[in-house]
Amino acid sequence: MTEQQAPLSKWILIVSGLFAVMELSVGATLFLAPESFADNVDTTARGVDFLLYMWATRQFALGVIFAFATFKRSVPMLLLAYIFLLVMFLGDIIIGIIQRDSSLISAGLFMSVVASILIFVINKRN
Fold first, then answer.
1. Rounded Cα–Cα distance for residues 59 and 37 (Å)
2. DSSP 67-90
3. What is the pTM of this model?
4. Per-residue pLDDT, 4
């Protein structure tokens, strides 16, 4: 940590740790029981398992990044992870609008606000 860089607050590390656990568990669940997240998708259809595994890998990778950045207390890594999270949830909002899924839209909006707040707070501390 450089002298110019302020240490991260404990609440930011706790929230980031929770995001790491959440993303790791979503990734693992998508690998082990994809039907729990894709209940309206025929998981036996050709190619669907490939897409579900790609989704699981994305979630798991994001969890590893959050865990590593939180453990290292790396401000740049956490900032990038939250930017990725924001982009991901903005994509969920767009998908929710296209699919007319109000729960996906509201969850995407909520999580986008959370990610935006964390980006702002982490950026402000620098």
1. 12
2. HHHHHHT-HHHHHHHHHHHHHHHH
3. 0.82
4. 57
